[in-house]
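Quick log. Single chain, no ligands specified.
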Amino acid sequence: MDRDSSTLDHAQLHDPAVARRYFGKFALITSHMKRVAAAMEAEGSLTKNEVTVLGRYVTALGRTFSALSNKFLLAGREGVLGPLLDFDRVDSGFPVFQEILTMANDAHQAERHLRNMPSASALKDQMVRAIVGDLQIPTKLQYALSQRLYYEELARGDLFWARNDPEAIWQGDLGPDRRTYLIHWALYDSQTNLPCVYVMEVEDSGRTALPRDQRRWPLAQSHLMAQSFTGLKLVTMAQGFDTDFDDLHPISLKRFHLGPMYSNAFTVQEGPISEVLAEAQAPQGQDWALAWTAEELRSERWEWEKSGWFGKVERQIYTLDPFGGQGAETGATSTERSIILPERPFQVLAEKNPPGFHKVRKFVVSPGGRVLSYR
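-> predicted structure:
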């Protein structure tokens, strides 16, 4: 059965207790991701601004999982006909793209739903009366409250959506007619079912500051979102942007893939990571591993290129991976693969020491939240 039709590589959470464990796992993982980003900053692989940007998207991702956990809190319970969460159990471990799209549609109607629903306190009062007075389990009221909490989170906003449009952060002036910005945006990739964050350093030689330029900024935002999918190489994205905007100069471009998530309880994986998680037999909450991949493209220099009859414009020359001739294949200057995992799975990974993980950076998190880094 193929991916497009209720597939074998997708699964649904039919049991409320299993759903709570699934979302509890992601709540723990997102809290660790911020600490890992801080550890990367301390080591110099991320800048302070990049950590701030990543922290913002990780926080938004945590809110998305929190909202979805309320939506599916009673999924599968007898007497509840609500939807079940559909997640990718093979390729990503994350909810499928359609769940994020549905959430965005729900957000547009959240205020209307909340106006027509009893308040949370009123629902709780009704639940107490049902339990004490009628000696009944108030399943339908519990479901109504879970949906109320879901729409309240959507109404608060600041979640990770299917599209998180570009924003520009001014970094400073390089001269009277040249400014530098950090542009960041993110998306939930429809092919991989994974959140992906982009960070681009851009020098602006236009007359009007980019975020206030009503001509260039909307076009730049539209261009970046149209080119943002994981199958496109960074060098292709950067060169296209450099060509289409003569006074915007992309100096660097980074792409962060936040996932996949592997768990012996929820996902089907092959190879060394499968053996590691199976042998670790980690207790609930520690049976997981999260891949984190950072691609980076950097400009080496710029050259003048003829434009029109008499004009000329700057064009960036990018450095591709100089080691092993892989740069042409990856379209990046460098690619660093990392994995975040609890202590028990890491111990098994260190003992087995599979060849495919020799160059993968390991970030080990303790139950108390401490992060240790290993090459």
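Residues 10-156 form one domain.
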